[in-house]
Amino acid sequence: MRARTTGRTLHDPKGGSFRFDAGALCLDFAHTGGEGRYAVFETLHEPTDLAEWLAQPPLTAVMTVPVTARELTAAKTLRQAIWDAAQARAARRPLPAEAVADLNRAATAAPLIPELAFDGTTAGWSRPVRATQALSTLAREMIELLSGPLGDRIRQCAGDNCPLVFVDTSRPGARRWCAMERCGNRHKLRALRARRATDP
């Protein structure tokens, strides 16, 4: 049914892509697009786009009921709430009341229900599988994350002008970058250039 790993490949509108693991599925979902200046990163254009995202591991929730336009709108509202709450927690600010209300509202729907297969070794989701259930599951995960022991480990990437947020699940709690291959390497390269510029 579900793999334990999280993370997705993010694509830059200007070209290029990289693997980004936000450390929690709900935070991965928050990076599927956005409003305002983040609209250029939008990946959920149609209801089928949402269905395809939810069907991928680790959630692997294959919709048995077609996703509606209304559910797509609800998904974007939830996504914004997760984003706003994560950004606030990373900045050590109070959570926006609207984000909290939207998270709680999405969580009131019935979540996905796990179902053990007859072989006793695999599992899937009990049918019917609806988008509202998947959104409720994501909202509940975010609520648990914010209120649990990892809530204080939600961070924004330390890279210049990088807004990506993640939960630091590393044992030492020392993660700084969205991805070492992206912002981490850029930081190292800038530091190297700065050292060389000051070397006699």
UniProtKB/TrEMBL annotation:
Domain Zinc finger CGNR: 153-196
InterPro entries linked: ABATE, ABATE_dom_sf, Znf_CGNR
SUPFAM superfamilies named in the record: Jann2411-like
Domain of life: Bacteria
Protein name: CGNR zinc finger domain-containing protein
Provenance organism: Actinomadura gamaensis
Lineage: Bacteria, Bacillati, Actinomycetota, Actinomycetes, Streptosporangiales
